[in-house]
Amino acid sequence: MNAPVDAALLGDLIHSADADGITKHVVGAVISTAAGQVLLLHRATDDYLGGLWELPSGGVDAGETLTGALHREVAEETGLTVAAIGTYLGHFDYLSKSGKRTRQFNFTARVTHESDTVRLTEHDAHLWADRTEQERVSSAVRHVLAAWREGSRMMNTAADDVVRDTSAPPPTC
Question: Is the pLDDT of residue 153 over 80?
Fold first, then answer.
């Protein structure tokens, strides 16, 4: 799913999760470069799900919106500042360390400066992963990245169509 983020969508996502018996909400960010690399973070081996490469992600605090949590979590985990949240890419469910039914909502995010240094606080490594390196993630995150690539491909195709349309000669009368 690739959907623009608005208040109605965010409300629907929370309502649907609640109806499904989800008790913990998590947000994840697909942060990419112009070259198609995606920021992945590596969990320390002694951490819950240790050794996993994942998207910048984290829990939504009580009273916090999904978008507010995404801004906060990206800043906390990477030191990067989210300038804009793009599209909703879908979700996946899992059991948290404490056994809570958890849903991770995933969004595209653009940071203020792609060249900013990543400063890790909760992970032991990061990687600007190319297409091959993106396979290091779980199958759930692979599905999210597939939705992101499909959305990017569709946007590039639409942009190409606009360029073709504007470069056509004007109609004659």
Answer: no
